[in-house]
Design goal:
- This protein is α/β, with parallel strands linked by helices and 300 residues long.
- It folds into two domains: 178 residues, P-loop containing nucleotide triphosphate hydrolases (Rossmann fold); 102 residues, no CATH class.
- The chain has a five-stranded parallel β-sheet with strand order 2-3-4-1-5, with helices on both faces.
- α6 links the parallel β3 and β4.
- The termini are far apart.
- It binds adenosine-5'-diphosphate and magnesium ion (MG).
- The site of magnesium ion has 4 residues, from α2.
Length: 300
């Protein structure tokens, strides 16, 4: 509940993104809250950026609560929001059920019950944000159930006059109905997280090496990973174990990375629901780098 967040490990780049997020937190603390969606590929650093914002909030004594939309089917509707409500500062909150005893079991009755639940939820968050602000982070909207997405969409409309900042993370693809439902609401801010840039990768390599690396490795890593933080971590770990990062040897670097299982495994999880041929193609591409033509890839 509002614990201090101190994300572990190296953090580079993202200055602009953090500046904007800090500004949104300042706005929220001043009574101009909002709901923002950070979108990006898996491994692009959405969670990590949210953690860094959590640390900023903790440093300002702003409570931080987290919820996550679970990948497993079978979680009850609104599960992420129930978790969030249970962590809100102040009295112990529990989301009321949509009992037929209050609203009847007709279609209008259920819609009214749902609306009442959404209102209750928004009120709980708005009240918990007094007096010094509140940061709510909801992870992985692409896995949200439709009720959670509708509740978040409803919440977006209540935040501009509150001290709450709600930051939601979501994958870019595949586009899910839940993501579309939230993004389509008025007042929702949307940001796409791109890959880390060359400067950030140089900083990353310097930190890993503890000195000044040959910057041509940054170009190579950028080509291999497009700045995806998850791939970057794996590629740099492999490189640092195989070559000296202070003297450039492109052939040795490429040989170090070629066909590595660690890199292939990284693309498996997001690839879960595609055909075996497609998965093979992407796995091959994941270790081929960008100098490989499509014809060569298909032949592989
Ligand atoms: N700016 C960054 N600097 C260094 N490492 C990062 C950065 N952003 C993310 N990472 C690391 O990259 C990996 C993937 O990031 P993560 O935030 O989990 O991605 P996503 O949530 O977009 O799937 C994690 O190990 C994370 O710590
Ligand atoms: Mg994440």
């Amino acid at each position: 509940m509002g614990g201090a967040y101190a994300p572990a490990g190296l953090f580079v780049g993202r200055e602009q993104e953090l500046t904007e997020l800090r500004g949104w937190l300042t706005d929220a603390q001043a009574g101009r809250g909002r709901l923002a969606v950070l979108q990006g590929e898996p491994g692009m650093g959405k969670t990590r950026l949210a953690e860094e914002l959590g640390a900023v909030a903790s440093g300002r004594a702003v409570p931080v609560v987290w919820g996550r939309c679970p990948a497993d089917t079978g979680a009850p509707p609104l599960w992420p929001l129930r978790r969030i409500v249970s962590q809100l500062p102040g009295s112990h909150h529990r989301l009321p059920s949509t009992g037929d005893e209050d609203f009847g079991s007709s279609a209008e009755g259920s819609a009214a019950a749902r609306f009442a639940q959404f209102e209750w939820l928004a009120d709980a968050i708005v009240q918990a944000a007094e007096p010094n602000g509140l940061l709510v982070i909801v992870e992985d909207l692409h896995w949200a159930d439709s009720t959670t997405a509708a509740a978040l969409g409803h919440l977006a409309g209540e935040l501009p006059r509150s001290r709450a900042l709600v930051v939601i993370t979501a994958r870019l693809l595949p586009a899910s109905a839940a993501v579309g439902d939230v993004l389509g609401r008025p007042g929702v801010m949307q940001r796409q997280l791109a890959g880390l840039d060359r400067n950030a990768i140089v900083a990353y390599l310097d930190s890993v090496d503890g000195g000044r690396v040959d910057q041509r490795y940054a170009d190579l890593v950028l080509r291999q990973t497009a700045g995806n933080c998850l791939f970057l971590g794996a590629v740099v770990r492999l490189l640092a174990a195989g070559v000296s990062l202070r003297s450039y040897d492109e052939d040795a670097a490429r040989a170090t990375l070629a066909g590595r299982r660690e890199l292939i495994d990284l693309v498996r999880e997001p690839m879960g629901r595609v055909s075996a041929d497609c998965r093979h193609l992407v796995e091959t591409a994941s270790v081929a780098g960008d100098d490989c033509s499509v014809t060569e890839l298909v032949a592989a």
